[in-house]
Amino acid sequence: MLRYRDISDIDIGKQQYHHNDDKTLTCPLSLLSKSSVNLTRTLAMSANKKNEEGLEHIRNAEKHLKTSLLKWRPDYDSAADEYNKAATCFRNAKNFAQCKECLLKSVDCYKQNRALFSAAKALDQAVLICKELGDLQDVASLAERAANMYQNHGSSDTAAASLDKAAKILEAQHPEQALKLFQHASEVAMIQDSSRQAAEYISKVARLHVKLQQYDLAADAIRRELGLHQQNESFQATGRLAVALVLVQLARGDVVAAEKAFKEWGNYCEAPEVQTLEMLLQAYDEEDPESAKRALNNPFIKHMDVEYAILARDMPLPEGISVPPKATVRENAAPSYVSPNSQTTATVQDRPEEKGESQKSEPKEGSDDEFEGGLC
């Protein structure tokens, strides 16, 4: 709403609008709807204009690719520039499918002209257009092609950065493809002896393995990252990773491996971290679920990377020996009812000796009768 102080009425076009006592200008909705319609028409006209400009650039590019009697070789450089201009026009017109097609054609022209760096840049743009389209199937292959071109050109750092950008695009919906791109980026960084950058990429690899519940591969990736941090003398990061390695080994169900990891890398941990790990390992060794739960709820573990915090939250606790609950006895309770028949049966059962003696006395009487008349 528009507010005015000293103006009694306002002329807009040929209509006159009066304000109320609260200095609020009242404007009909029809004017707003007309303005929105005009805006959409303007945007549509500009989009059509950009599409026409893009088509004109495509026609110019095709002319540069044609040969004649006096022109034996196509002009790939000029054609690539025209395709790039066409892609820019289609991108402004929100025609992303046509934009991607023009970028790929410019890549072919740059390759024919052996301009690998420019071709790789066009592939990076195609990756971003795939993100706008919502079609991520070609992202991994386009990123791999761009990285290879950057490496052949001698720009390995740019190749690793290109792989990293593409992997971040795929990380949410296609983590397995992002995993391969991060691994490739770490390998490229290792070739350039950039151990810090390689450690960053391997850290992403380890966290993705944890997210996918691939704990064996996650443990291997964490060990490689520990080695790189030790090489760079990043002792604080090494201590945090030692805690992560212990958690991963416990998630694997291997308490012995977790204890070995703590003995090997526990020297890099700070005092609170050491106390937490000792409490956690002792709880799993003694199968004490309550102590293990208290250790896993430590604020330090909760403030780790998201993947490790979720791992600690969902960690299976050790199963202790279940103790049966004691029977509760109420005070001043009435005695339980006892049937008189049960007393008689109990007395009979309590005197089995008398019953046995009576059974034994019967055969003795029979034996006396047999020898009563003597030998005759």
Automatic annotation (TrEMBL):
Statement: the UniProt record of this protein carries the keyword Signal: no
Pfam family, one: SNAP
Subcellular location(s) of the protein: Membrane
GO BP field: intracellular protein transport; vesicle-mediated transport
Major localization class: membrane
Cited InterPro entries: NSF_attach, TPR-like_helical_dom_sf
Positions with biased composition (Acidic residues): 367-376
Gene Ontology MF terms: soluble NSF attachment protein activity; syntaxin binding
Keywords, ordered alphabetically: ER-Golgi transport, Membrane, Protein transport, Transport
Compositionally skewed regions (Basic and acidic residues) per UniProt: 350-366
Superkingdom of origin organism: Eukaryota
GO cellular component, one term: SNARE complex
Compositionally skewed regions (Polar residues) per UniProt: 338-348
Family note: Belongs to the SNAP family.
Protein name: Gamma-soluble NSF attachment protein
Species of the source: Zophobas morio
